[in-house]
Amino acid sequence: MENTNKYALITGATSGIGYELAKLFARDGYNLVIVARDQAELDAKSAELEQHMIRVITFAKDLFDPEQAFGLYADLQAQGIHVDILVNNAGQGVYGEFEDTDIDRELDIIHLNISSLVVLTKLFLKEMTSRNSGKILNMASIASKTPGPWQAVYHGTKAFVLSFTEAIREELRDTKITVTALLPGPTNTDFFTKADMLDSKAVQDKDALSDPADVARDGYDALMAGKDKVISGFKNKVQTGMSSLTPDSLVAHQMYEQQKPKDQ
């Protein structure tokens, strides 16, 4: 297979969209570097993915600490592994009005969603530039397009990811390296549990949540086609298009109403 000697690195790879992306790469013959915090989960997913007759390397790293992103790169260098595709999927949020939420938790989220993503992109991009080949997929969100009351920090971090991705893509326009942003909407993953968001009106209708396998396929196809970004799902495309035509203050109010607790 043409991808036999290629490696894709995926953060947050043991569940949700990250794991669905890992399965797509494995089916296409890519070797994998999968990263998450829990070694037992990594081992279990590795055993599943290796059924596709690929090599899977696992790293238990806590990317809430950007120093562990530097450590991940150093570990791969020590093993002589060159990453052909980088997928910055790991990310979390926290639910609540900003004055009430925990600042240490929010700083951790900024480190995970922004700092570690920037570190990994910087380090692996330098390698890709030296080879003039490579692909990067950054997990943004339709949250990147709107202010997000009840998730102010999360929306802010995703706005950074989208802007950052579009900027470096332009810087690389004369190379063979592509950078793609994936913008899903609310998806049926454990994101809402980790964000303590289960009481939000936005997640009461489980049937309205996107399937992570569908989101992963949209992102994978856009990445392989070298697209700049993809909004996953027709409903999310419509919502984002409408938001772009609506004053930000009104969008913020609409999001406040959509995301507030169900008992308010």
UniProtKB/TrEMBL annotation:
It holds the Pfam family adh_short. GO terms for cellular component: membrane. Gene3D superfamilies: NAD(P)-binding Rossmann-like Domain. Keywords: Oxidoreductase. Transmembrane segments: none annotated. GO terms for molecular function: oxidoreductase activity. Belongs to the short-chain dehydrogenases/reductases (SDR) family. This is Short-chain dehydrogenase. It comes from Pedobacter hartonius.
